[in-house]
Amino acid sequence: xxxxxxxxxxxxxxxxxxxxxxxxxxxxxxxxxxxxxxxxxxxxxxxxxxxxxxxxxxxxxxxxxxxxxxxxxxxxxxxxxxxxxxxxxxxxxxxxxxxxxxxxxxxxxxxxxxxxxxxxxxxxxxxxxxxxxxxxxxxxxxxxxxxxxxxxxxxxxxxxxxxxxxxxxxxxxxxxxxxxxxxxxxxxxxxxxxxxxxxxxxxxxxxxxxxxxxxxxxxxxxxxxxxxxxxxxxxxxxxxxxxxxxxxxxxxxxxxxxxxxxxxxxxxxxxxxxxxxxxxxxxxxxxxxxxxxxxxxxxxxxxxxxxxxxxxxxxxxxxxxxxxxxxxxxxxxxxxxxxxxxxxxxxxxxxxxxxxxxxxxxxxxxxxxxxxxxxxxxxxxxxxxxxxxxxxxxxxxxxxxxxxxxxxxxxxxxxxxxxxxxxxxxxxxxxxxxxxxxxxxxxxxxxxxxxxxxxxxxxxxxxxxxxxxxxxxxxxxxxxxxxxxxxxxxxxxxxxxxxxxxxxxxxxxxxxxxxxxxxxxxxxxxxxxxxxxxxxxxxxxxxxxxxxxxxxxxxxxxxxxxxxxxxx
Amino acid sequence: xxxxxxxxxxxxxxxxxxxxxxxxxxxxxxxxxxxxxxxxxxxxxxxxxxxxxxxxxxxxxxxxxxxxxxxxxxxxxxxxxxxxxxxxxxxxxxxxxxxxxxxxxxxxxxxxxxxxxxxxxxxxxxxxxxxxxxxxxxxxxxxxxxxxxxxxxxxxxxxxxxxxxxxxxxxxxxxxxxxxxxxxxxxxxxxxxxxxxxxxxxxxxxxxxxxxxxxxxxxxxxxxxxxxxxxxxxxxxxxxxxxxxxxxxxxxxxxxxxxxxxxxxxxxxxxxxxxxxxxxxxxxxxxxxxxxxxxxxxxxxxxxxxxxxxxxxxxxxxxxxxxxxxxxxxxxxxxxxxxxxxxxxxxxxxxxxxxxxxxxxxxxxxxxxxxxxxxxxxxxxxxxxxxxxxxxxxxxxxxxxxxxxxxxxxxxxx
Lengths: 568, 414
What we know:
Strand content of chain B: over 45%
Number of helices of chain B: 6
Order of helices and strands of chain B: HHHHEEEEHEEEHEEEEEEEEEEE
Oligomer: heterodimer
Helix content of chain B: 10-25%
Number of strands of chain B: 18
C-alpha cells in the first residue's frame, strides 16, 4: 500500500469512526421518526445547483465489456431500491415521471407521447444537414429544420421498410407512458432533394480526416438505407433534447459531478424496472450509449441534470441495421454457462430462441410472444440495474405493463404508421401476449395487495393486482388484517383487537381506532390460504389521522434488505 | 434513500466491491451522509430536508468525471485502431506458410477519404522477414471498386520441400530459402453485391537459395529432375484474372452463402525458361441449420498448373487451411485437389464457434488424375473467435496418418 493510500484509509477510517460515534449519540438527542409530515413525497427535491457538471464520454466497448464480465460479479443483489418514497413508490424526478397507473392516459395522449408538435411538423420542409451521424453503423444525420430547430434523423435499413422508424415511434411512446424522459419523435417522408448540406457540415470518412460534407456523401449515405420505388425515404426524426448534452449515464454507480445524483443507479427502481419493460418491448440494446444526460433549467429555475432514455429504437424485432439476431433477447453476448453446455453438447443443448416460431414480417423483424419468458429474457449485456432488480421492483414494473389495455396497445402501435395492417396487428398481438406473460410471472410472486385505503368511517379497501390482471386466482380464504397503533417516534406497535378478515376487498376496522389527529396505525394485510405461499406474508400499510381522515403515509411490501449474496 | 436508511448506507457499494470510480468515491461521502441521516433532530423536519442534506453533502465532494485507467486504455486503443486509422499500428500476419509466429507493425497514412499509403513489416521466430508498401483506394464507383499498388519483399529461410507427388516420404524433407520481391497493381470490382471480379499484374523477382534450419538443403537431396526448376531464380511478369459469385456476408466469417470463383494466372518468365499458366477453381457453400445454430460448410479447391511450373510455385497441400494435419508444403505437384467439410456449432453466436472438420486432398502430375481416389485425409476439432466480418483467432487440433498438429491461425480456413 502506498503512503498516500494508507493516509487515505486512515482518513476514511477516522471519518467513519466519528460518524459511528455520532450515530451512537444520536438517540440521546432525539429519535428518528419513521414518517415525516411531507410523506409520501411525490417529487425528489433535487435541491442543488448542478451547473458545474461536465460533459463526459462513456466508451461503448469498455461499457460492453464491463457489463458483460464485471457487473455480474460486483453488483449487490437483493438490495432494496433506494429511491423510493414511504409508500414504496418512485417519486417524480429528473429520471422519472409517474404517468401510466398514476393517471389515466387516453389513446390520444399515448399517440402524442413526448411530442409537443403536430405529426406534420416535418411535412414538405427542407432539412439542412449540419452533421452526419458519427457513432454507430446505421446511417443518420443531424439536421436543421426551417424554423431553426435541430433534429436527429435515422432511416430504415434496406431490408426492412418502416421497421426501424416504426419501432422508434412505438417504443418512444411506450417508454414515455412508462415514465421515462423521451425525445420528441416524428415520422416524415423525404427525397434526396429535400436535403440541403450546410456549408459548415463536417464529415469524418474512413480516413479519419474530417472535411466539409459534399452531395456525394449524402448520396452514399442514402445508398445504405431503404429507398421506396418513388424515390422517397422514410425517416424517424428525433427533436434535439433541451439543455446542454453531457453524455450518457451508466446503469451503476453515480455521476461524480452531479450533486443530486446520490442513489447508485443500480439501486434506482425505475432503472431496475427496465428488466421488465425491456423484456416487454425486447429492448435488447441496453447500454450507456443509448442514454443521455442533459443539463436543463427545471420548472423551479434550477440547473439540474435530466436523464433520458435516448435511443429505444432497438426494440421489438428490429435494430437500426436490420432484424435482431435470433438469440437477441434470449441471452447476452456472453451467455456464460450456456456456452459451456453448448460446447459439451456439440450444440445440442438447445435454447428457446433456436426453436421459437417467429411470424416473420419485414417491418417487424424477429418478435414473438409464444416462447417468450420474461424471467429469462436478456438484453445483450447485463447492466447493473438489471441484475439488482428484486421481486418488488419487478412487481412494480409489471403493474405498469399490465396497466396497458389491449386498446391502448393497439392505439400506440398506430404511431408506427405501418402500411401493412398485418404488421400493425402482429406487433400489437405480440405486445399483448408478452404483457400477459409479464403479469403472470411477476404479479403473483409476492403479496400483490395494492391501493390500500382507509376511509374516515374505518372501512379498509384494497385491490389485488395479480387477481385484477387475471394472473392468479383470488385467495380461497380471503384476506386477514392485523391492526395496531403505531408510535411514529419509537416505531413501537400496540395491537388493536384480534384482527379482522374478509373474503371481499374491503373490511371494517376493529372498534377503538384512535381518533386524535396525528396518530398513526399500522395494518398488516395478508391473504388467507392463497395459492401462492408468499401472499401469506403481510404487506404493511401505515395511516396517519389527519383532519378526521386517514392518510396513507407508508406502505411496505418487502421492506427488508435481503442480500442474496450475503454482503449486507 | 428517501427513508432514513442507515442500513442502506452501511452497505453502500465501495470500490473494494468492484464498482468503478465515481461510485467508489462515495466512500469519501460516507461520514457526511451517515451524519446527515443519523441526526434528523438537528434540523430535519421533513423528508425533503433529509434528502436535501444528502444532496448538499455530495455537493461538497464533487469530482469531475474521468475514465478509469482501463477505460482510458481501451479508448486509446480504439482511437489508434479505429477512430484514427492514420499512424502506427500493430500488425499480425504470416510472412509465408510455415514461417511460424510473427511480430510486426505498420504505418498507414490516409490521403483523402479512402486512399492510403501503408507500410508494414513482419518478422517470424524462424527468421522469416516481410515488408510491403501499399497505396490503395477503396470504394470507388459508389463503393464497388478497390484498386491498389504494391511494392514488397519477403525472405522465407526454410521453406519445406518433400519432392513432387502424393507419395513422397516425410523423411525426405528438405529446405530451401525463398526470397521474393514484387511490384504489382490490382483491382477488385463488385458490380453487383453478389458478383466479384478481379485483375492484377505484377513483376515478381524470385531468388532461390540454400535452405537453413535443421533439414538438409534442397540441393543436397533433390535434382532438377525431382525438383523442377531447381537452380533457377526466375523473374516473372505475373498477371491474373478472376470472376465469381459471392453471396457470403463476409469472406472473413460466414455462416451462410456461396462462393464460386475461377482464377487464371499467367507467369511469364522474363528468360522464358519456366513460364506457366495456372487455373484455380474454388467453391464454398455454407448451409445453416436451425437459425445458424449449426452450419455445414463445404469447400473445394482445384488448382491446375501447366508443365513448366517450378517446384516452389507448384500447387501444394498441407497447412493450417488445407490439409491441416500435414505440415506446410507437404505435397506438391502440377495439380491439386482439396475438399473440406466442417460441421460448425455456435456456443456463443456473437463471438465463438466450434467445428469438427474433415480435409481430403491430393496432388497429381496429370490433370486427369484429379479425382477422389487415393486422397490424403485428416480430421480434427477447432475453436474460433470471430466477429461479424472476421476470424481473428482459430485454434485447431488435426489428426492425419502422419500424426497430429495444432493449428493457430488468424483467419477462417475457408
